Amino acid sequence: MTTCDCKNTCTPTPVFSQIGKPKGNSIIQDILALASRPEVISFGGGLPSPEGFPLEAVKEAADWVIDNQGRRALQYSAVEGVMELRTALAHWETENGVPTKPEEVLVCSGSQQGLDMIARLFLDPGSKMLVESPTYLGALQAFQLSQPEFVELPCDEQGLNPAAMGEECRGARLAYVMPTFQNPTGRSIDVERRKLLAEKAREYDFWILEDNPYGQIYYDEKPALSMRAFAPERTITLNTMSKVLAPGFRLGYFMAPKIIIDALSEMKTAIDLHTATYTQLITARCLELDLMKKHLPYVRGIYKQHAECMLNALETYLPKHPQIKWTHPKGGMFIWLELPENVDATELLKACIAAEVPVAFVPGFAFYANHPKHNTARLSFVTVPEEKIVAGVKTIAETLQKFL
Amino acid sequence: MTTCDCKNTCTPTPVFSQIGKPKGNSIIQDILALASRPEVISFGGGLPSPEGFPLEAVKEAADWVIDNQGRRALQYSAVEGVMELRTALAHWETENGVPTKPEEVLVCSGSQQGLDMIARLFLDPGSKMLVESPTYLGALQAFQLSQPEFVELPCDEQGLNPAAMGEECRGARLAYVMPTFQNPTGRSIDVERRKLLAEKAREYDFWILEDNPYGQIYYDEKPALSMRAFAPERTITLNTMSKVLAPGFRLGYFMAPKIIIDALSEMKTAIDLHTATYTQLITARCLELDLMKKHLPYVRGIYKQHAECMLNALETYLPKHPQIKWTHPKGGMFIWLELPENVDATELLKACIAAEVPVAFVPGFAFYANHPKHNTARLSFVTVPEEKIVAGVKTIAETLQKFL
């Protein structure tokens, strides 16, 4: 109780719920706050490159929507999403190799909301949930609100290794995987591993939540098909417009069997009624005008160029050492760096931020549900100009030398 | 287990979480599905009138945003909301009588999301939560996902009656109230009751979640100030652009002490990162150009005219009976109808849908957390043309006659 003289009108300390209790700033937030000074070269972010945003196309589509669908665009709409958008997305996914019906699509407010919704739909406190090791940090944050017991799946240099999945999977309701250009490693699993993952899901009777934000951001070759091609009956795929159109719209979408779409729809009614009608109609218009086909090659080109630049710089500058290695992604936004076991990437980060040409990245420990590897780091390259990529990698190389 | 020959590739029955288990269609959804035929006059919806949408202003603002802030509008943005919008909203609330700083504002994806966020922030399964009787159906749906124990607060013909609040409030973390033009009753509580509610909140040490979607939709006189004027230290006010600008944007906002804003911000990071940047910037632009002051008198005029039309029709056509009465709202979108105790409004609704001039409304039982009164109904008038309001009320009157 407060003991001041305010007649009891001081702000009382709220009794938060168990999941609502603020965790306070994490180590990562503390460090990245230090790194937010403009002179710091940041390999930390997961933002897409704003160079890739189709401003004129969005403006034209937005004007068209107000002129032709204005009252509808500003009104409430169906919880599952507007039918034009569900149809356009189903058509797009079908064209990309996995037959999809509009009624198997549900629109959500970015895939981050999708992660939270699936966790709430499947997980009671203590439910077993399978995740890759490492896995996407933001997904762990969303899932933690549902208080699952995480089980880390076996992963190797080719990504998730379903052949090594065994009894630890029994009793799990759900596995969260990112088979294509994974965040944080950039790794993709091949067709054989996808098939085997489908078999394991059937054997141990769990659902697959496939997060696929980067599938369209391949540099040269199209990646293997979505898990919906291998285990359509038990895969929920989450996709997003954030990397191919605009994150500022907060538009994601599920593709799943109808029993899941129906349950998600009931949940979405309770948690936010529906995603914004206006941005859905704009996005539908962009898709109908085939913006993706015109726009994606340009986005892929930017990302590929930046990835190559960073890979070259790593090859050129990083110390030659048998325990220093990094992934060579064929799409997406991330390179995963592994350091000698005695090097703590958080300490390396602190030193890099204090360097003459300061640089930041995300220490890898944050991407593990249970057993962090502290000698890892995630490097993102897409928003950094090429000369700064080179300068930043030089700083990492010089600083790392002192840790060896 | 399935026993078919599909090699185990049938869609398996998912094991949903306790809160995720679909409840199936509610009685209300079943009935309202019947009522969705175009010939049915619907007093059921809570939609604002699309006549009131400022299409031209939105189009101009949207073009301005792409021309002047395009790359930013399509990019990720701050979890609490874009600063222009938080500043414009703080300014607007301050002008309306409750001093508010931008850092006390947090933007969310419609107030439905706000209800879910507060429930998750405060409630563990079984936590005591105070609600009005009746209260907003959509809020109950959101809160139920956090599995609280609801306690109904004493209400009378003047709305919530804090004088009668007592020991049942002890141990509650939160009270959910709509003091102004309440959904479903249309009632507002006066300044005395607001002061007393503040005192009770201090006495029993609970937080107040004030839902205020209709405060600006007064017909003649401005209503009493928000609870933030009476208990600023423990009130969380939830407001929305849905009724004053456009529900299709899904834009709501919290105003609360910083300790709550910080906790909400941490939660929002995990559940959807942030609300769409683009619609936030468009809304900020509309507010900066003083759209509210130009636009709101027009919206209030439409709503007042429809309310008067329905009140006149009820007075003219409903059977004279001491137990038939209805509220006379001074703002908002709803009239609450009370019927003789032996009349079940759900049965009345079925008969009204089957009438020659069919009409639908929402039976009142759905608005009670614990102790439904079946002889009540919510009537909404804003999207119905005046001649149809009269025709619909005639149907209710004639049908009701048969139940007396």
Automatic annotation (TrEMBL), chains A, B:
Residues 52-391 form the Aminotransferase class I/classII large domain. Keywords: Aminotransferase, Pyridoxal phosphate, Transferase. Its cofactor is pyridoxal 5'-phosphate. GO terms for molecular function: transaminase activity. SUPFAM superfamilies: PLP-dependent transferases. This is PLP-dependent aminotransferase family protein.
